[in-house]
Specification:
This protein is mostly helical and 373 residues long. It is 76% helix and 2% strand. It contains 11 helices and 4 strands. A hairpin with a 4-residue loop joins strand 3 and strand 4. Helix 2 packs across helix 10, helix 3 packs antiparallel against helix 4 and helix 8 runs antiparallel to helix 9. One of its GO terms (cellular component) is plasma membrane. Belongs to the G-protein coupled receptor 1 family.
Length: 373
């Protein structure tokens, strides 16, 4: 009788421990000798990392900082453009459109993506409706951000190569048309699965929320959201590079054929013409041409860096998104997450790049904070 009571008490105690520690506290599995072994309570099963390791906390902290920095930087750009009247024109409206898309990525897309990353097995626990809303905003805002980069590159290309025909009025109309087409195309790509039944984003059985894996939609969405604007920006930057090289060669041809004797004789006269008050127009034209060339060179460098960062951030994700549904293969979840957040980080780099190469933004930021004080 006492032995029976001890066995009953031991059974109750072990049941209580199992309830407190959860189903993974004890893992019964036969070892090679045939004896059933158990994993000690609190230890993670083999091949699985602890749920809250130091590395996991560090990664989550970095992602939270990335979300906050992306939101604040783009919001600062938007506030500056709205408050400074000099920015109420092209190309700042294209920059504002880019900042709007990047603010929405940071405010609506990245936080829910982080929630999904933190759930066990990357499951979606927020229901079917919110899954559709999240996926729609994800595709629309990221696509708009990418096409806005292409629009900035196109505007810069027309400004450099057609500065006589590309007047202020033409530039304003072209920029508004590009912004409208950007958001219309982004909305079409994002909402096509909902309107036309092009695959399903939410899997209730697996509790998974992801972009439709229908092969035809994968081709349509990746080409419309990335590969087409990628072709545009690469073609545009190649044309900008050719135009800059042609102008440099034309300037060299205009200077080199002059005889050395003429240059020696005319050098004092040119210096006198430039620096005396009797011929101020010559000095103004020379400095004006030099200023415009420096501005175009700075703009070309900015567009090149913007395109380079855009390609490096997004090409791994879109390669995986295109190849996966077509070959019915899948990357490990950890690499999917790395590629996705690398693409999201492009929304952080965009405002840093186009404000770093524009002194007007830096001065406006300083004036904005000094006025607030």
């Amino acid at each position: 009788m006492p032995r029976a009571m001890e066995a009953a008490n031991l059974s109750v105690a072990s049941t209580g421990v199992a309830l407190r520690l959860g189903p993974e506290a004890f893992s019964s599995s036969p070892n090679p000798s045939g004896v059933v072994g158990s994993t000690p309570g609190g230890a993670a099963p083999p091949g699985r990392e602890p749920p809250f390791s130091v590395f996991s906390v560090l990664v989550v902290t970095l992602l939270v900082l990335l979300i906050a920095a992306t939101f604040l930087w783009n919001l600062l750009v938007l506030v500056t453009i709205l408050r400074v009247r000099a920015f109420h024109r092209v190309p700042h409206n294209l920059v504002a459109s880019t900042a709007v898309s990047d603010v929405l990525v940071a405010a609506l897309v990245m936080p829910l993506s982080l929630v999904s990353e933190l759930s066990a097995g990357r499951r979606w626990l927020l229901g079917r409706s919110l899954c559709h809303v999240w996926i729609s905003f994800d595709v629309m805002c990221c696509t708009a951000s990418i096409w806005n980069v292409a629009a900035i590159a196109l505007d810069r290309y027309w400004t450099i190569t057609r500065h006589l025909q590309y007047t202020l009025r033409t530039r304003r109309r072209a920029s508004m048309l590009m912004i409208a087409l950007t958001w219309a195309l982004s909305a079409l790509i994002a909402l096509a699965p909902l309107f036309f039944g092009w695959g399903e984003a939410y899997d209730a059985r697996l509790q998974r929320c992801q972009v439709s894996q229908e092969p035809s939609y994968a081709v349509f969405s990746t080409c419309g959201a990335f590969y087409l604007p990628l072709g545009v920006v690469l073609f545009v930057y190649w044309k900008i590079y050719k135009a800059a090289k042609f102008r440099l060669g034309r300037r060299c041809r205009a200077v080199l054929p002059l005889p050395s004797t003429v240059q020696v004789k005319e050098a004092p006269q040119e210096a006198e013409m430039v620096f005396t008050a009797r011929r101020p127009m010559v000095a103004f034209q020379t400095s004006g041409a030099s200023w415009r060339e420096q501005k175009e060179k700075r703009a070309a460098v900015m567009v090149g860096i913007l395109i380079g960062v855009f390609v490096l951030c997004w090409i791994p994700f879109f390669l995986a998104e295109l190849i996966g549904p077509l070959c019915a293969c899948s990357l490990p979840p950890i690499w999917k997450s790395v590629f996705l957040w690398l693409g999201y980080s492009n929304s952080f780099f965009n405002p840093l790049i186009y404000t770093a190469f524009n002194k007007n933004y830096n001065n406006a930021f300083k004036n904005l904070f000094t006025k607030q004080r």
